[in-house]
Every structure is written in structure tokens, then in C-alpha cells.
Design a protein that fits this description.
Elements (H helix, E strand, L loop, with lengths): L1 H11 L15 E7 L4 H16 L4 E7 L6 H5 L23 E2 L6 E2 L7 H21 L3 E5 L2 E3 L5 H4 L7 E3 L11 H9 L27 E4 L1 H14 L4 H4 L8 E3 L5 E3 L10
Parallel strand pairs: 1-2, 1-5, 7-9
Antiparallel strand pairs: 3-4, 5-8, 6-10, 7-8
Helix pairs in contact: 4-7
Length: 272
């Protein structure tokens, strides 16, 4: 009997594992922008999802149907935050003859090298709809373009206290996706922390928008999503990576140690 009592005492005195500083259930929603009727885009999206699972990243992901040139007007009507969003003008140059300074922002606008400018517009509308989703959910979300891939495990609780801005870029600054990527990376590692996007241009250069690395993977908060859509109501629609710049939104931030990269050997479905 005494042995049994002692055994029970010992069991009750067994030290418990320290509680983690986070809840395993604390996850973040991720939206992978996918062209449903395009087998190439669907394949890339599936690879992206596989890397989320393979790295054990704490995301609840789903495939988010991309806007196409044929659905731009219909999809703009889904942007409930902006009244009559389908009437918004596209105010970014579509050819080099329209390149010029924007009087409202002081930024220099130059046309994108794309075979079909309608795809550039459709890409922007896809991101706008994702911003509307962020507002509707009223919580931070991750937006991933279909050719993204995870490099390492993502855990929201690792960064949320240091992520004090409204948008956080989590992608690698690669030569074929980020302007002056070498300078971008060089200035990032000077301060190993979550920080504002670095300036990559020199004094005297044209004042071009400077923002995230590639703009294909980022976290956005609801108040920031509203700020982006408010700015569109003011200046019109621009390409998403031009609109999302530090000159217009100084509270944007980037990771010095990225979580995502683009999948190698992929072609752009926007510019080609």
C-alpha cells in the first residue's frame, strides 16, 4: 500500500513540459493566386502548396482564382470597399509614349514590358480582390502568386511582434524579379531585421516606385488593405508592385531573411 501511495506521489510530481510561448493553433491564412483554366498556373500553384506542407509552415492555404483579361470588369465589381470599383481608370502607361511624371505623387511612371497589357491590369485586380478578402476577414493574410515557393518553415508568432507596419514582403530579391536586386540585398543585410524596403536608386535618378522584392509574396493587414484601396480611389489603378511602394506607404516592411523564392525555370504569365 505504501509503495502504491509513493508511486502516485511520484507520478503527480513528475515535472510537466514547459508550455510553448505560442499556440500551435495560431496560424495564418494564405491565398495562392491561381489561374484555374491554365494548366501551367495550376501546376505551379500545386508546387507552391507542396512547399508549404513540406516546410511545415503554419499556414492554412487555399487556391484563389486569378482575374483574367476577360473577367476584369466583373471582378472589379467584387471590390465592395470601393464604390463603383469597375469604373476605376487605369492611370499607368501602357506604352512608352505615355511615360511621364505623375503630378499627384511625383513618381515617374513607365510602361511595363508585357505582350498583353490587359494581363498587367488583370494581375492588379487579382491582388485588389485579395486585399478585399483581407478586409472581409479582418485579419492579416499572406498573398502568394502561383510561382512562389517556401524556403523554410513559416511561423506567424516568430515575426508578428516585429512586424509593426501594414505590409511585409517575405520574398527573395532576385535579379529577374527585383530592380537592382544586388543593391537591394546589400542594403538589407546591413541591418539584419524586419525593416523598410531599401532605396536602390541614386540621387538624380528618376523617382521610380520602390517597394517589395518581386511583390509575389507578402503579408498584409486589414488597415493596410484599406489604405491601398483608398489610394487607388485617389490616383487610379497602377500595377500592384508600382502602387505598393515606400514613397506612398512608408510603413511597408521587408524581411532581410526571406521565406519565399520564385520557382526556377518558370515563365511569367503576366508579361508573356
Amino acid at each position: 500500500m505504501n509503495d502504491m501511495v509513493n508511486t502516485l506521489k511520484n507520478i503527480n510530481n513528475i515535472p510537466t513540459e514547459p508550455k510553448p510561448k505560442y499556440e500551435e493553433s495560431e496560424r495564418i491564412k494564405a491565398f495562392i493566386i491561381t489561374m484555374y483554366n491554365d494548366s501551367y498556373s495550376s501546376f505551379l500553384s500545386r508546387v507552391c502548396a507542396n512547399t508549404i506542407e513540406d516546410t511545415g509552415s503554419m499556414m492554412d492555404y487555399c487556391f484563389f482564382p486569378a482575374t483574367t483579361p476577360n473577367t476584369v470588369e466583373r471582378d472589379l465589381k467584387k471590390i465592395s470597399y470601393i464604390k463603383d470599383a469597375h469604373k476605376l481608370p487605369w492611370t499607368w502607361p501602357t506604352n512608352d509614349s505615355e511615360n511621364d511624371y505623375d503630378l499627384k505623387t511625383g513618381l515617374y511612371k513607365s510602361a511595363y514590358r508585357a505582350n498583353d497589357q490587359r494581363k498587367v491590369i488583370a494581375c492588379m485586380v487579382s491582388h485588389m480582390r485579395a486585399w478585399q478578402m483581407c478586409i472581409d476577414l479582418n485579419q492579416p493574410i499572406i498573398i502568394l502568386e502561383h510561382d512562389s515557393k517556401m524556403l523554410r518553415k513559416f511561423r506567424w508568432y516568430d515575426i508578428k511582434n516585429d512586424f509593426t507596419g501594414g505590409i511585409l514582403g517575405i520574398n527573395v530579391a532576385a535579379p529577374n524579379s527585383t530592380r537592382k536586386s544586388f543593391i537591394f540585398n546589400q542594403r538589407l543585410i546591413e541591418n539584419k531585421a524586419i525593416q523598410p524596403p531599401p532605396f536602390v536608386d541614386d540621387v538624380g535618378d528618376l523617382p521610380r516606385p520602390q517597394g517589395l522584392a518581386g511583390n509575389s509574396a507578402y503579408i498584409i493587414k486589414p488597415w493596410a488593405a484599406r489604405a491601398l484601396l483608398d489610394k487607388i480611389s485617389e490616383i487610379g489603378m497602377w500595377p500592384n508592385d508600382a502602387l505598393m511602394c515606400k514613397q506612398l506607404f512608408p510603413w511597408m516592411q521587408v524581411m532581410w531573411s526571406p521565406y519565399t523564392h520564385f520557382q526556377q525555370f518558370t515563365k511569367s504569365t503576366t508579361t508573356q
